[in-house]
Amino acid sequence: MITQFVGSKSQPPQFTRGYGLAFGYAERKAMGMALVDRALRAADYQEEIESPAQQEEFVLMHCDNVEAAGFVSHLKLPHYVDFQSELDLIRKMRRSTLAAEPQEQEVTA
Amino acid sequence: MNRHEPYEAQYNFAYLDEQTKRSLRRGLLKAVAIPGYQVPFAGREMPLPYGWGTGGMQVTAAVLGRGDVLKVIDQGADDTTNAVSIRRFFTRTAGVRTTLRTDEASIIQTRHRIPETPLRSGQIMVFQVPIPEPLRFIEPSDSETKAMHALNDYGVMHVKLYEDIARYGYIATAYAYPVTVDHRYVMDPSPIPKFDNPKLHKSPALMLFGAGREKRLYAVPPYTRVESLDFEDHPFELPRWEQSCAFCGSHDSYLDELIVDDAGTRQFVCSDTDYCSQRSGRQEALA
Q: Which CATH number fits domain B18-135+175-228: 3.40.50.720, 3.40.190.10, 2.40.10.330, 3.40.50.11310?
């Protein structure tokens, strides 16, 4: 599962991945695991923990109910359009970070 | 695609019972009377999970008549899972005629796109909405956001957009870009790309929005002003592509980027399959 990451001082904006693996035809289970995997790695990415979906307790309590089942399985639907717009945005953000970097170095040098 | 699914008459017309459809229509009337205002409704459980268009389907069921012609799209395409199964659902439970052509349809249920072909008066668009509250990511409390809507207190939304500009130099929202409806309510146009926002403005068609999980309806009546939020010195901008569609050559439709082989070769194609095939058809007829 892929999600957006706005970047930090040392890293440009990018897409990040979460992984899930399950035996048999358990696609939804694997997707759920991948979501939880990424949701709980806020600390690894040095993200500011600001939404409930980044808190371990909240995620574990809320990812096993009827509504969550629908949410997880809806990710099997195509997301070309949302993804395309996110992709364009991330590219734009990367262009501006990469363009900005050399200038910053010049200033510090 | 025009294969006839059997009409199953043991269901009430369009699946929901008449009383439910009536209460939905009452909610929709209120939504139309107060453009952009979120009206709660008594959502029913539908035979598919939340997140798959249960809100949109309930709205479609409420407004559908025997003479209607239904089109269903998912991310612009008529042939993706969600679109195919919802179209089949209404063929089976209502026996209505379906179409793939935007100009032939009287009701178009959509997941996250507005067709490229201009809509006309008399058509109804039904949007599937995951999160109806545009202020949700800023203010998690529902009673707070209700008060903010009531008091026309949208300062935080502008602050959020301003923070984007301060941080990145532009507004970093690519889809579900908030709009103001009829100079009053700030509304989430559902996760359509911001490319589609201008199509809401003064559209001759009626736009209905249904959120199944959160049980909310809202609407944009025909010819209503819909403005995307922006600032005087940072006006709302539309994304542009340097490429054109690989099939129909369109320069001004929303393009999806596809990787077509292992070497990473890219192709751009229209996300609106009906618009694309009609353009290609016309070009072939001319050639």
A: 3.40.50.11310
